[in-house]
Amino acid sequence: MARFFFNRRGADPETADASRRLSAMVRAHLALSEDDGVTVSEIACSHPECGDAETVVLIMRLGRATEAVKVLKAMRLVTEEDLRQALAAAPA
Prior knowledge:
Layout lengths: L12 H18 L6 E8 L8 E8 L6 E5 L8 H10 L3
Antiparallel strand pairs: 1-2, 2-3
Helix pairs in contact: 1-2
C-alpha cells in the first residue's frame, strides 16, 4: 500500500524551518493579509520527477476557494524560484 503522508511526530527542525520559510515567501509574493492562511506540507510522491516527496502549498484567502500549488521536490529543497514558478502557473 502506498504511503501518502509522512509521519510528523518529532518532525525534524529542518523541515519545520523550510515550512516557515516557504510560507513567508508565499505571503510576501502574493501580498496576503493577516486574515489569509497558508499551509505548507510535504507528502509522499511516486512521480519520477519528485524523488520521494513533493511540497503542497494551500492558500486560503477570505471569500475565495482554497488554492493548491505543488512543487515536485521535498520541502527543504524548494527554492524561491521554484515557488515563484509554481505560483505563476497556478490558475488565477
